[in-house]
Amino acid sequence: MPLTELNNNDKKILLETAKKSINFGMLNQRALPVKLNEFDKKFQEDAASFVTLTLNNNLRGCIGTLEAHQALIKDVSDHAYAAAFEDPRFPKLNKKELTEIEISISILTPAVAMNFSSEKDLLSQLEPGTDGIILKAGFKKATFLPAVWEQLKSPEDFLNHLKIKAGLNANDWPDQITISRYRTISFK
Hints:
Layout: H1 8-28, H2 41-44, E1 48-55, E2 58-64, H3 72-85, H4 95-98, E3 102-108, E4 112-113, H5 119-125, E5 132-137, E6 140-144, H6 155-165, E7 178-182, E8 184-187
Antiparallel strand pairs: 1-2, 1-3, 3-8, 4-7, 5-6, 5-7
């Protein structure tokens, strides 16, 4: 699905679905089941999404997938529930937090492998604020959504923190490293 096809009403529907899934999950310990036939075709198309929860401008949960494998509306419902109750970095969301969290949704374009000859060459190709990056080195893998550029503004910081997230040393540059880039449409 081309990301430009989402209008403000579509974004509102996705955000409402995420909120309903979290509320449903608080009571039922599972994501809100969605009936695909109740939604416009664009919501039924496979898409990859991340749902991010923040509380007082601090990360409170973020779960998603890098590759499209299910209908967008179901993907958002599942990831909203998982961000609230299954992110291993945080305790389950509690009822008080439920009224205070901010929900953000990022819908990803398919990732495209980048060609580069060195770390310096890669850094020169990165587009701050626009690129989401997937780093792979052997069995190690990590991603940063484009929103992370808000905290890590330079390509060097962005890449070094991504290497650390993947379990590498910030100074490492493995021979088998691969980098893929994707874009998102993000809204809250």
